[in-house]
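Quality-control log, excerpt.
Job 1 of 2 completed; input and output follow.
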Amino acid sequence: MAIRTRNKISTEFSMASMSDLVFLLLIFFMLTSTLVSPNAIKLMLPSSSSKTMAKQSVTVYIDSNFNYFVEENPVNQEFLVETIGSKLAGQIDASVVLRADQSVPVQYVVTLIDAVNKVNELTGTKHKVILATKPVK
């Protein structure tokens, strides 16, 4: 008399639990990758391939020591509004060209833009700021 086992061992492998695990991992990585901030990119600005020509009324320089120069004359940050306002007096729609060193933080550029916007508020004009860049090599 032969003894037979009732429980047969199946040689087939079920992939259902494996696919569930893969989808859970996929969802986890998709969610966590959106939380990572992209602050690790180092940019070497400014350089541009665009060629915008505009009538240059006033040129403002910001050097690597974060000093402001209006038409090559040193100006303190507190007197930017008065100096730019006097240079743009009598003009309604002029351009202020900003030539900033590429190591200058954005806050110094924003300070100049705020000064030009303040001149616009005080005089009712529409002056704009143009960032000068070097051509891409």
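Job 2 of 2 completed; input and output follow.
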Amino acid sequence: MIEAKFFRSSDTEKLLGFVVSGHAGYAESGQDIVCAAVSSAVMLTANSVTEVFALNAKVREEPDGDIYLKLTEDPDGTGDKLLLGLLTHLYMIDKEFPKTVKIGVIDK
């Protein structure tokens, strides 16, 4: 199962970042459309944050495939909106492919 944890400011309720890890287990490695969809959505979000909108963020990909993103500042809320888009997209994937993605939002 893929696990996506989003971190939210308890003060502003804005999303601050995420960590995504694991494998969907929907199909064999290399054939898993859920893993491909989640990976693509995560990379699109990370690239949109850092390259398109040039927001200050720390992005790290671990050798095991875990991906971390943490906004270091988000003055106009653009980062929050991009992360909310990813969160919504992952909920839609989980709805279409149940028990493949576990999503959580943690207040910080």
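Post-run check on job 2. The chain has two helices and five strands.
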